[in-house]
Structure formats: C-alpha cells, structure tokens
C-alpha cells in the first residue's frame, strides 16, 4: 500500500497546481462515508467548469452530492465509484461542507447545484459556452427553464433540450438522444433527472457524447423553472433547507429527512470511530488511491 501511495504522490507533485487553469490539475478531496468529496469554493468550481467546457479533448462528468446522495452511495459500490471517478463531486449540502471545513480543515464553500448552474450560465457567456438541458418532469418545465435562464442571462446559448420519459429509453430513443446532443454543438449537458438515476446516466452516456462535460444537478431544473420554491437564503446557510423542503413536500420527502438525517449522523459517528473505509475527513490529492479493504 505504501509503494502505491508514493507513486500517487509523485504524479500529483508533477501536475500543475491550479485546477482552474489546467485540466490535469485537481482540487483536494476528503473522505466522507464511501465517497471522496471535492474541497473547493463555488467560484473556483465555476471557473474550472467554464475552463473545461471549452476543451474539446476533455470528456468528464461532475456530480453534485447532498446528504441524501451520500446515503444512497453508502454500500452501493457502483454509485460511490461514479462519484469518485468524477472530475469533481461537489458538496451541495452544508453538513458536508462543515465536515470539510472542521474535520478535513479545507478552505471550501457550499457548491449548491442550482447556484453552480446559474453561475456557469452567467460566466460562460463570455467564453461562448453552449448548453444542452436533459431532464425536467415534462416539456412545460423545460420551456419555463429555458425562458427563465435566457431572460436572466441575455446571450446565453441553450442549443438543445430533451425531456426523457419516466421509464428506460428504448435503443432507438437512446440513439436519437445521442444524435441530438452530439449534433447540437453543446459544451455542457446539464442533467436533472434525480439521484441516483442522473449519476448512472452521466457515466453510462459519457463515452457516446461529444460535449466536454456532463453535470448532474438534480432539482436545479425545477427550482429555476419556478415549479418548486427554494428555501430562503438564511435557511440554506444554516443547514435548515431540509426542514423547508420537508414542510413544502412532506409526503414525498418525509422518509428522506425524518429517517435519513439520523441515519447520516449515525454513519458519520461510526466512521469517526472505526475509520472505515477511510478516516473521516482524510484528505487526498485529487484522484483517489485504491479503496482500503474492510
């Protein structure tokens, strides 16, 4: 294990140090349950996304994880591997940011998926970034989303969209989606079909699609379309967004928050005590070393 770790260190020692300037550089990542989360500030993440989007040789995916995503990945080797193989797995929830700041000692901020999407749409205009939207509960939601984004950011280039059905695509439909996206000239495909479905989609489709980046952003589509209200800023800053969403959609979200939040705290404590699969908050330079055996 030691020799493998030293090789990993040498690779990163020789890499350029600024991840917002060079695609081969990377931000530190820290251990939380089975996932190694990216430690970065939102402005740095946005600059990296815009930079990578205009690199045609780059084909990567980005995950945006909240507590619910981590719970789904826990004990799910496929989902945790997708998150750990991403260019960035951003911390959408404040509990994750607090672990990063206080335990991993990282200078980082919350990379809330809806905010990341807005900032990239805004800052990407100067670079001519082209966007494709994949997701939405129906075509009306997509139309509202496009109208709101283009009104907010004049000159924004949304070059295509697709609202998938609530079932697996047929081979013909999947081939059509690939053709649409590749013919659109998009640099970024935003995917909003819910976790973990969207995370499976980005990794399954990555090899077939030409755009530089596939980014899974969950509920951002509904928030920016105006079909679901966001929590007030003060609640988002103080780890209370879950309470707002529970009050707004109790029948759909009660299990996620009433059962999920205590479960997360239990798993957090267990990792802190057992140090499995890694020490809580253990920091890695960019890509992950091999997972330790339990």
Question: Would you write up a description of this structure?
Answer:
A hairpin with a 2-residue loop joins strand 1 and strand 2. Strands 4-3-8-7-5-6 form a six-stranded parallel beta sheet, sandwiched between helices. The chain is 48% helix and 14% strand. The protein contains 13 helices and nine strands.
SSE order: HEEHEHHEHHEHEHEHEHHHHE
Q: Calculate the mean pLDDT score and round it.
A: 88
| Largest sheet: spatial strand order | 4-3-8-7-5-6
Taken from the alpha-carbon principal axes, the silhouette is globular
Largest sheet: 6 strands, parallel
Structural class: alpha/beta
The total of helices stands at 13
CA-CA gap between termini = 14 Å
Query: Low-confidence spans: pLDDT under 50, at least 5 residues?
Result: 1-15, 288-294
Into which percentage range does the β-strand content fall?
A: 5-15%
Could you estimate the helical fraction of the residues in percent?
A: 40-55%
Kindly provide the radius of gyration, computed on alpha-carbon positions and rounded to a whole number of angstroms.
19 Å
What is the total tally of β strands? Answer: 9
What can be said about this structure in brief?
By secondary structure, this protein is an alpha/beta fold. It has helices at residues 2-13, 42-53, 67-73, 77-84, 94-102, 113-123, 139-152, 171-184, 197-205, 220-225, 233-237, 241-248, 250-274; strands spanning 29-32, 35-38, 60-65, 88-91, 130-135, 157-162, 188-192, 213-216, 283-284.
